[in-house]
Predict the structure.
Amino acid sequence: MSDLVADDVAVEPKPRRRRGKGWLLLLPGMLWLLVFFIVPTVQLFITSLYDPNGSYEFGYAMTWHFQNYATAVTDNVDLFVRSFTYAGIATVICLLLGYPLAYAIAFKSGRWRNVMLVLVIAPFFTSFLLRTLAWSAILSDRGVVTSLLQTVAILPDDGRLLATPVAVIAGLVYNFLPFMTLPLYASLDKVDPRLIEAAGDLYSSPFTGFRKVTVPLSMPGVVSGTLLTFIPACGDYINAELLGTTQQYMIGNRIQAAFLKERDYPAAASLSLILMAIVLVMVIVYIRRAGTEELV
Amino acid sequence: MADAARDLTLTNVTKRFGDFVAVDDLSLQVPQGSFFALLGPSGCGKTTTLRIVAGLEAPTAGTVAIGGDDITGLRPYKRPVNTVFQSYALFPHLTIFENVAFGLRRRGAAHITEKTERMLDLVELRDYANRKPAQLSGGQQQRVALGRALINEPGVLLLDEPLGALDLKLRRQMQIELKRIQTEIGITFVHVTHDQEEAMTMADTIAVMNAGHIEQMGPPAELYESPRTTFVANFLGQSNLIEAVVVDTSGSDVVVDCHGQKVGVVGDRSHTDQGQAWLGIRPEKIVVNPAGDDATAASVSGHNVLGGGVVTDVSFVGVSTQYLVRMPWGQEVMVFEQNTGRRAPLRNGDQVNLEWSADHAFLLDADQDAQAGVVFEDDR
Amino acid sequence: MALRENTLTAPTAPVPRSTPGRWLADNVVMIVGVAVLIYTFVPIGYIFALSFNEPAGKSATAQFDSFTTDNWTSICEPDGLCSSLQTSVLISLVATVIATLLGTLMAFALVRHTFRGRGVSNIVIFLPMATPEVVMGSSLLAMFIAIGFNGVLGFLTIVIAHVMFCLSFVVVTVKARLAGLDSRLEQAAMDLYANEWQTFRLITLPLALPGIVAGALLAFSLSFDDFVVTNFTSGSTETFPLFVYGSKQRGFPPQLFVIGTIMFLVSLSIVLLGEAVRRRRRVT
């Protein structure tokens, strides 16, 4: 209530922030991130430029082989396309499912708000792998869902859900839903309900009010939810591995295989960095719009 | 207990934030045991000045002293100064009891429990001792903040617009309370506010601040009746400022010419003695009478008269009726007439004279901005 | 100034339809929301149900063969299950402590102090949250190999990796709490004779604690459940998620579903407990 009274401030003296101390507090954590995140990423970049003719056993020669990137792209175009398609579809479905849920919690939940928020993240309390395994059980050939869909003729009699893109996308949607719901909720929560009332007062129907007031105001949440869903979904490989076959493999699977099985480091590194670059582009676009203060 | 030499003295205090000068070479002395008000509009630097005294802000230049002791370099926790914050700043995770006892505990004082209970009694919150701040109303929180500061018996108590968040009725009540407590306890109070009525009600001395410097300092009545600047004239209450030219300073009164009519101003209220001036007269001091046959005759001898006015607006406000009177030179003069019932109210279009007692007007240098300090109703 | 005759008439408000359709329109959002929530619990239900299943063959399947409580009484029977759990708990505890400590310091720096290079710091902290885990895991592995750690991949390298990606989440959580803390409270404390250390100990820390605890819990759960990064940096050490993944080849012991259920119930109770404590304390 004291905000209603103007503070004696054209310029509010900010709380004293001592200069040198900030760096000191930041240092240990920053060092950790520097050594174990930035440096490895740089190292990855260097690795991606090795001569691909080397090998794990005999070492690699550094030849600034930028060609690796071109090769990585051309060899894996279909994988990239598939990854973005799956991730894109999953993100859209997450948006369609998550928005009503977030809206319900923000505006319609009343006393149950905190309970519902807990319920949104509660499924995450079990192991990610176990959940995905559970889905492979649910969608299995002799499972209820498959049989039901066969009976209703959405699936042919010998159709499968498992080991199809449908299962992989369904897994992606399931596992990334909270990443969409929570930012959406945070954004919707900030919308002043009186604005919607004002829209109604100015003769708009509830749907128009939603379209012209609520949706634009929730845009920051939509943007961050989309980023937080799409980006990890692109690089995911567990869902593809547990719910699909090599036909559904995504970029993540390829990177993992290249690193751990084939040990083709330059190829693996260049693939990783391409993925990373795409992420960075999206992050930069976001920063351009919203600045860096809201990032963390 | 009261040491008469423990006055609070600020000497040439300046505070700059980058290019912005919040406090501009400010000097003042607050006598020990007095109730001192720092009054001014938002952004004038009064809160910054307070924070400098508290130690929460370091001055760019100048010194702060209590008695003879220079406290300018001392950290806040080393100064015999306590603050009641505008937002109360009660510790949300501590009980009321612990909030009030906080200062005592830090200093390792004796008999903490008794002292705290006594203070809670003083602010009438003994029953709430075990509650948390969030469970109290605004007025109750304010009293806790006060008790938390007072209990430490500081040399100076600073209050940063402590009544700002309270509703009108409660505010009036607390104004009286605070004044009473201050008189009883005898601690120096420095009260920052933008509410001129509040300052005039409570303070022994007011310093009116504007843009980082003090416009005028003195007892409320002196500031109100004899303002030295247009800012003070407009900020405290309301004033009519009329263009005038000084014509005669030989007598005890200064005679000025207002658009052809001559009026006198007593010497000690004239703050300029030559050339262009502002003739100031407060709306409640003006007596408005229907113009008789002799347009410039005063109804009471010795009164100044300005004739030729026409009523252009009448507002009934219960206690008084407010008139706007358009003078021959175009200016609309405000008049507040108490509704004593002695005469029927005037109407729009009535021809009137304005008169006032000779010792009620004041004279200011015309160099000053006539709009300085004017407060619009929605700013209050 | 006289008002003109009002020539506009406001459109009349839609007449409320009678009950069933109206009720549906009013509540459709909530219904959809609850439906989505139910959908998210379906696998949990499966896990719970399957924990009571005695599989016909060696490996647990989706079929309900027969009901048994044996799985619950013989949790540690499968080889390596409990040791992997133990390893996971240990790793996560260590990683949580380190990440919470460092992350809290960083959050304080970001909220309470000015310094140049703020924008860069924000970006560096944000990136691990946005980077795909494959990239983080593989790059860390490459680095460990390059510096000759190849032989000692295991506990240490996993902890290092976990701290790395948990830091950002701790920073975000603590920062959110700190940003809501009124700094005037600390000024009030100093005004009341508390020096800097006392102010921190008595005012700042207690008020920031809920955020720090939340950050720690988040870090623990992220670390405990991590698979991808751990897979790259674990060498031969086996954490619980790695064990689960490995079961794909070995065959799933039904006890896995028991563990899954327990994990769910434990976390749920912690959260609900925290909520109850918060409600009782009613701290701003």
